[in-house]
Amino acid sequence: MSDFQPLGISPFPRFSHIATFMRLPHVPLDDPRLDELDIGLIGVPFDLGVTNRTGPRHGPRQIRDQSSMIRRGHRVHGTYPFQQANCADVGDAEINPANLHDSLAKIEASVGKLVAKGIRPLSAGGDHLISLPLLRAVAKDRPVGMVHFDAHTDTWDSYFGGEKYTHGTPFRRAIEEGLLDPKRVIQIGIRGSVYDLDDDRWGLEQGIRIIYIEDYFRMGPDAVIAEARRVVGDGPTYLSFDVDGIDPAFTPGTGTPEVGGYTPAEAQKMLRGLRGIDFVGADVVEVSPPFDQSGNTALVAANLMFEILALLADRVAAAKG
């Protein structure tokens, strides 16, 4: 068995010891043991891209705390992800809370250290702008596809008189920079009122497949899974999950809540149905603890991260043969 295992409940109960993602070992980015990892769980405590309710900079810390409830085995897959792949909490990406662009560069550099060693990054945000530097690291050598769960497309051009870098613009910038192949991008759960009825036109013109929430409820999760698999195909793919894709009855602690979403159980079903896709990295974003003192939003996010980790671990195991 790998040395990179979560703490058991004896002698340390879940409410004790230093908090790490899923109670995994802490292996900092400058630790020599980094070379042994397959999957690096990294926090990105950044919210300089938020346009309304701030707070996602505190998300990674609360997700770590809530992730103490994660156990070793994945009951549905019938696997032990932490045995399939060497996993560790590598700490947080470096950021500059006083400078957005410097933060983006620091985030890219931090995650780039993982990618350079062949480690698949699983990131906890942070607002959704963090996906841009994460993609700059993961898709440095070629564009990737993407499965994107969200209430919003995040393909707007600018805010507030020309600001190009906010949590509503990362995927437009990523397509413009050649990081994403838009014809291999699917967005699931898009909904809510809009500023302009043409807000989604740019993404559709690039070839993005948008599944609005009305489509989701008409199609059902199984058909949505099949469509996602068709769109991304066999190539390298990124997974981004904004917790506001889930109905705010379950995830109220987020910056831009939209009513009428899917449930955590439906989200789990869809993620499990993506098993076998070549995911090269992923993030779970927009957990804002100030807006959910119960911690339930972070608990949902921690479980989403475990579902995604299981997908990544499957790919690692397959690559190792």
**Strand segment count:** 8
CATH first level: which class?
Alpha Beta
Q: What's the N-to-C terminus distance?
A: 16 Å
Structural class: alpha/beta
Quaternary structure type: single chain
Provide the residue-averaged pLDDT: 96
CATH superfamily: Ureohydrolase domain
Quickly list its features.
single chain, alpha/beta, Arginase, Chain A, globular, 10 helices, 321 residues
Structure in words:
By secondary structure, this protein is α/β, with parallel strands linked by helices. It has a single domain, classed as Ureohydrolase domain (Arginase, Chain A, 3-Layer(aba) Sandwich). Helix content is 32%, strand content 16%. The protein has 10 helices and 8 strands. The protein has helices spanning 59-66, 81-84, 100-116, 131-138, 170-176, 201-206, 213-219, 221-232, 264-272, 296-320; strands at residues 39-44, 87-92, 120-125, 144-149, 180-190, 209-212, 237-242, 279-285. Strands 2-1-3-8-7-4-5-6 form an 8-stranded parallel β-sheet, with helices on both faces. Strand 4, helix 5 and strand 5 (180-190) form a beta-alpha-beta unit. Helix 4 packs parallel to helix 5 (170-176) and helix 9 runs parallel beside helix 10 (296-320). The longest helix is centred in the C-terminal third of the chain and has 25 residues, at 296-320. It is globular, with a radius of gyration of 18 Å. The mean pLDDT is 96.
Describe the protein's topology.
Blueprint: E1 39-44, H1 59-66, H2 81-84, E2 87-92, H3 100-116, E3 120-125, H4 131-138, E4 144-149, H5 170-176, E5 180-190, H6 201-206, E6 209-212, H7 213-219, H8 221-232, E7 237-242, H9 264-272, E8 279-285, H10 296-320
Parallel strand pairs: 1-2, 1-3, 3-8, 4-5, 4-7, 5-6, 7-8
